[in-house]
């Protein structure tokens, strides 16, 4: 009756995972992608490019060795934009190749063009050359993601005023950079450029930043940024931005201060890429940020055979969670019952230093009035930390005093985004402080911090 069992709009993490999952259970799938290559924001402008840029910067700048050799140590003296781009293009090519292979191996068909609804089961595809075709499907997944929010007062020019999608292809390295928006993306780029010794100013209208992270961790992180001369302008709304005669962007802040820089990155928010989908024809509406509401358990929209997943449905807007959403949507569409999602998922912020967190923050535990105790470990207390020359880095664990259960793990420092998974496993398996005290950890590792933090909390609990 229909051309396909499932049409997926967008080939980012949620679309890709839904397509492969549907194909694995024998369904016919078409992925429509308007970009030049498959992969979505995640592969081309978001997750992978920013992480590749970070890795390149840390390697070429010799960042990880500076604890031993001093702040002026560099692996490559003159690092230019071309150095950063070389590794980026290689990595992206590889990612796309793996994806294309995954699609062809699983007989997932792809069509290049922009999709829009003509009716709830019919999608029209506008190819780059202007040709139109239409296809029908029993189920549709909207996985179109987001694009950067670009307010009129920002003079974007692709030369020295960028949004977060454009910055990955920057033409040359600035000596100074202003970043507007201290959300995850803004903080990541601000700290990556600061590791290259670019003078960075981070501007945020709210008085604090990354409010979903444990406050003590943010204090530690802020201290490190200030120590590196990152200028933080918190509680400072931008009232105007203009380009001077020399072409340099200057931000006027509502508190009367001015920030002039060689380059400006506007990273304050993203909006759902839904405006060209003709959602009215499907019977769907979006909110003021272009996002689509779904049933969080099934990922169904208000029209039951149309699903939405990934950034277009809002929080948490991560590649990691988007993949799971795609899988859940596909399973539900074809009558498979996916297991309920685990209670806690990790959050990774690839700033320099990294931050990663899973479970409740100390603020949340207090709000719920759970009697608790914390344990802290500093990476410089571990032998691995000595070997690596780490002067910074901290892990904080929170335990329930009544049940001894682990409630949250919060890490800032080298390897945080990898280390967190030990805490995640213990948390989701409802483990207690005893796991950390009684088990042997490889030595010397940074993971030993779990034992140190566990014992620290245990000592306090015993004393109490
Ligand atoms: C700078 C940055 C850094 C990030 N870092 C991380 C990180 O470290 N870890 C992490 O987990 N997440 C990270 N994210 C978030 C992550 O990239 C997103 O959560 C993820 O990409 C969302 O996936 P998605 O499935 O919504 O699709 P997206 O990746 O958003 O892709 C959507 C695709 O749909 C296509 N599309 C849109 N409209 C149409 C249409 N009408 N027809 C056809 N195709 C269409 C687009 O071209 C695009 O290819 C980062 C994001 C950014 C911007």
**Bound chemical compounds:** flavin-adenine dinucleotide
Helix fraction bin: 25-40%
Looking at how many chains there are and whether they match, the oligomeric state comes to: single chain
Low-confidence stretches: none
Summarize the main sheet.
7 strands, mixed
Number of DSSP E strands = 22
- The pLDDT mean sits at 96
Estimated structural class: alpha/beta
Shape verdict: globular
Radius of gyration from the CA trace?
Answer: 24 Å
What is the topology?
Elements (H helix, E strand, L loop, with lengths): L3 E6 L3 H12 L4 E5 L6 H5 L2 H15 L4 H4 L11 H25 L3 E4 L1 E6 L2 E5 L5 E11 L3 E3 L12 E3 L12 E5 L3 H12 L3 E6 L10 H13 L3 E4 L3 E6 L5 E5 L4 E3 L2 E4 L3 E3 L33 E3 L10 H15 L13 E3 L5 E5 L2 H6 L4 E7 L4 H6 L5 E7 L5 E7 L3 H13 L4 H6 L9 H16 L1
Parallel strand pairs: 1-2, 1-6, 2-3, 6-17, 8-15, 9-10, 9-15, 10-11
Antiparallel strand pairs: 4-5, 5-6, 7-16, 12-13, 13-14, 18-19, 19-22, 20-21, 21-22
Helix pairs in contact: 1-8, 3-5, 3-6
The site of flavin-adenine dinucleotide has 39 residues, from α1, β2, α2, α3 and β4.
Summarize this, please?
The protein has 464 residues and is an alpha/beta fold. Helix content is 32%, strand content 24%.
Structure description:
- The chain is an alpha/beta fold and 464 residues long.
- The chain is globular.
- The longest helix has 25 residues, at 81-105.
- The chain has helices spanning 13-24, 40-44, 47-61, 66-69, 81-105, 184-195, 215-227, 319-333, 362-367, 383-388, 416-428, 433-438, 448-463, and strands spanning 4-9, 29-33, 109-112, 114-119, 122-126, 132-142, 146-148, 161-163, 176-180, 199-204, 231-234, 238-243, 249-253, 258-260, 263-266, 270-272, 306-308, 347-349, 355-359, 372-378, 394-400, 406-412.
- The model has no long low-confidence stretch (mean pLDDT 96).
- Strands 1, 2, 3, 4, 5, 6 and 17 form a 7-stranded mixed beta sheet that branches.
- Strand 4 and strand 5 (122-126) form a beta hairpin.
- Helix 1 (13-24) runs parallel beside helix 8 and helix 3 packs parallel to helix 6 (184-195).
- It binds flavin-adenine dinucleotide (FAD).
């Amino acid at each position: 009756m229909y051309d396909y069992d499932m049409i997926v709009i967008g080939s980012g993490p949620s679309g890709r995972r839904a397509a492969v999952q549907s194909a694995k259970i024998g369904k016919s799938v078409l992925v429509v992608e308007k970009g030049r290559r498959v992969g979505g924001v995640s592969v081309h402008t978001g997750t992978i490019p920013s992480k590749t840029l970070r890795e390149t910067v840390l390697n070429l700048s010799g960042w990880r060795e500076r604890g031993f050799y001093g702040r002026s140590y560099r692996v490559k003296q003159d690092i230019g934009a071309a150095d950063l781009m070389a590794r980026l293009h290689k990595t992206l090519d590889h990612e796309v190749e793996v994806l294309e292979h995954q699609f062809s191996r699983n007989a997932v068909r792809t069509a290049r063009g922009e999709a829009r609804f003509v009716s709830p089961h019919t999608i029209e595809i506008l190819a780059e050359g202007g040709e139109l075709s239409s296809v029908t499907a029993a189920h549709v997944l909207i996985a179109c993601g987001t694009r950067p929010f670009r307010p009129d007062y920002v003079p974007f020019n692709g030369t020295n005023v960028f949004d977060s999608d454009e910055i990955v292809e920057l033409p040359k390295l600035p000596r100074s950079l202003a970043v507007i928006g201290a959300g995850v993306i803004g903080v990541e780029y601000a700290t990556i450029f600061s590791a290259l010794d670019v003078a960075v100013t981070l501007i945020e209208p709210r008085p604090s930043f990354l409010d979903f992270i444990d406050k003590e961790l943010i204090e530690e992180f802020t201290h490190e940024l200030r120590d590196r001369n990152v200028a933080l302008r918190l509680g400072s709304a931008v009232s105007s931005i203009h380009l001077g005669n020399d072409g340099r962007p200057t931000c006027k802040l509502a508190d009367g201060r001015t920030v002039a820089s060689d380059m400006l990155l506007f990273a304050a928010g993203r909006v759902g890429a839904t405006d060209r989908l003709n959602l009215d024809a499907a019977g769907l509406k979006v909110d003021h940020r272009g996002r689509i509401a779904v049933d969080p358990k099934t990922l169904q929209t208000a029209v039951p055979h149309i699903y939405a997943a990934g950034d277009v449905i809002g929080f948490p807007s991560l590649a990691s969670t988007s993949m799971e959403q795609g899988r859940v949507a596909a399973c539900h569409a074809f009558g498979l019952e996916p297991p309920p999602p685990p209670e806690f998922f990790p959050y990774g912020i690839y700033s320099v230093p990294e931050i990663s967190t899973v479970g409740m923050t100390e603020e949340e535990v207090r709000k719920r009035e759970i009697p608790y105790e914390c344990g802290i470990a500093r990476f410089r207390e571990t032998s691995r930390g000595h070997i690596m020359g780490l002067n910074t880095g901290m892990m904080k664990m929170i335990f329930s005093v009544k049940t001894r259960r682990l409630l949250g793990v919060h890490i800032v420092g080298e390897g945080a985004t990898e280390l967190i998974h030990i805490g995640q496993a213990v948390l989701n398996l409802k483990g207690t402080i005893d796991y950390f005290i009684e088990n042997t950890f490889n030595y010397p590792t940074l993971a030993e911090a779990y034992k140190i933090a566990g014992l620290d909390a245990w000592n306090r609990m015993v004393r109490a």
